[in-house]
Amino acid sequence: MILLLQQILNGLIIGSTYAVVAVGFSLVFTVLRVINFAHPDIFMLGMFAGLWGAHLVSSNIVVVLLLGAAGAGLFGLVLEQVVIRPLRGRDVLMTLIATLGVAIMLENGMALIEGPDPVAYPTLLPQAPVHLGGIAIGSRQLANFALSLLVLGFASWYVRATRYGRATRAIAERPDVAAAFGVNVDVIARITVVLASMMAGVAAVSVGALYGSAWVFVGTLYGLKAFIVMLVAGNRYFEGVVAVALGLGVVEALVTGYISSSLTDAVAFCLLILVLYFRPDGLFGSYAI
Amino acid sequence: MVSWGFWQPVIIFSLLNVVITSGLYITALSGQLSMATAALAAIGGYASAVLTTNFDWPFLPAILVACALGAGCGALLALLTIRMRDFILKLTTLAFGEAIGVIAFNIPYLGGANGFSGIPLYTTMPDVVIATAIAIYVAWCFDRSRLGFAARAVRDDPVAAAATGISIAQVRIITFALGTVLVAGGGALSAHYVLFVTPSQMGFYFSLTYIIFLLCGGMQALWGPLLAAMLLTAAPEVLRFTAEFRLILYGGIIVLVVLWRPNGLLPRRAIGAPIMQTPIGSRHE
Amino acid sequence: MTGPLLTVSNLSVRYGAVPAVADANLTVEQGEIRVILGANGAGKTTIIKSILGLQKATQGSIRFDGAQELRSLRPHQIHQLGIAWVPEGRQLFNTLSVLDNLRMGGFASTDRATTERRIATMLERFPRLAERRHQLAGSLSGGEQQMVAIARALVSQPRLLLMDEPSLGLAPMVVRDVFALVREFNASGISVLMVEQNARQALAIAHWAYLLETGRVVESGPAAKVAAKDNVKEIFLGGHA
Asked: Range of C45's domain?
């Protein structure tokens, strides 16, 4: 029983990172109607921005997180301006391809600088076992989890309780009507990309510090999962994306623990096929595209 | 002056890509723009390689098995995406391709991360030329056949197509299967030339290459994509001198080309209507 | 201020090769209710969307308040001039609450206090909505949704209200309420350009009417006169006065 709970907790922790990346992906998708293939690499960029910050500035955890967020956010801003905005109104395939090109450049560019293998990452926090009613968990894992939840909480608050957040949801549902009520879609689009990028940056630093390593190709690990989560959950409800991400993490953890670790990555795909076959719009529905 | 030793691989790779692109062209004619081409090719590669290497099968039967397996996978993909809207369909094939790569990564029998190697060198220039001729012929016949027209009808106006008695499901399944036969066959030939098949060649990045051939060549006629396949395969080989910057350049070129020709290099209808436009100026709901 | 509030001149809109609106001329005077009648596909919604900047016109001009050319503006800027929209089929933000929909109506103003006050006024005026203020807009009945759509448009205190088929899909009693409502806020100074198929009730409250046929304005005049015309009577009023 304890082992089961342990696995579930592990799964939730992994899932929480999936959730942060997936929510960012999903937000950009619903608001701008584009797949930003470079989003997972913005995640990676945030990770390295944090790393460089830790070496050049300070290894204070708050500073590193901020630098990671800033680095990712800055790149998101540039990406939106240079690649995504000019392709507005075009076939979405074009933006997908263009952002893929950016992703390739980012990954290989970073590989030239940092090398194609994992590099050491400052762990920023001491590791100490924390006991929650019989379950042992490292303080780092807990911190990672807490940070993800914090970011998700912020995103939820933004989307529900702020003027711009409401406008974001309005655009996701009916962009023409939103514009006709004074919403400058361009501005909101840009803010959304930057926010999604910053969220990814924070999550990335968190993950890097948790495992003590950063890898230029880490984006592909989280990117595909986040992408699948987005398709499975549908883009109508923010909470749906979070739920599916956490669920995926848990199922993966259970599969790893009880069946076999080589099947872990197949879980996501099976889920995708199953759900999309019966509910092509995703579990919680999507806005008409 | 560069020697035949330099040009032979370039030509072979180009022709193999022509074979695979013909397959993609067939599938795309029915509006199903498969983003899993590289993965499907690799499935053909793995299948034929296992048969020839581990079971000592002769080359031709192994290729045929690969093609059959390809047909099965193509039909399966078509079935899986039958209810999906155009965009989600593309995304699902994308996810499929990536996931197959991940699965192959984790199967020790197929060599895991390092891939399957030790494949005998069976593919020769004459083989490739014959295969290319067959592929072009098949695609050309399909293009002009009743099925080809039905496929275009399904792509352009599914409602009208259904009204004239065409079974959309059947057309989609058949074209996907047929296209994938060629794709998997090309993959099998490629595996017996390069002598290894790895999971890393199954990703979207590689599948995208074939889509770029379609985009650059245009979908109006078969020749466009095939020509693009030949030219664009040869070009990077010629650019080898850029070494470690090659991929960065490749990514940069993709970005620049898309920004330069944002409407695609061909009429929109051709690869499936742009069902999604970003907000404002478009008519939503 | 003299001169019409809105002047549409020689407006033409094409969807690709298909002309949706051809050389349309219409105006809205301050304080008036003007109605555009027409069958489905006549181009009525296209005109509305062109005014809002949601549809690109091929040629023509749309002037607000005499001077401001709307064709050079983006939709959110057009709204900020004082034009609000009650779209065809309501088009509420269904995943937002009633209250949030009203807040979206007031989005253009950064003065939260004023907006909240205006929303409170709306909720007083529509007690049924006040009851359901936290409900998701998509869960309301057709008539209630129409109230939300109108209230949402009124929150910004517009000078011109564009209404696209407000009676669509509503029960006759509700339709009556809606038109009474339109008359009510018109009396408080809001000008209205309404597109309608329900000619009888629309003509009853309108000052002026236009008849649109395949993208062209074929009739134009005071509402009563247009109502008396044979072609209007035949098509829209069931053949009798």
From this structure: 1-82+158-241
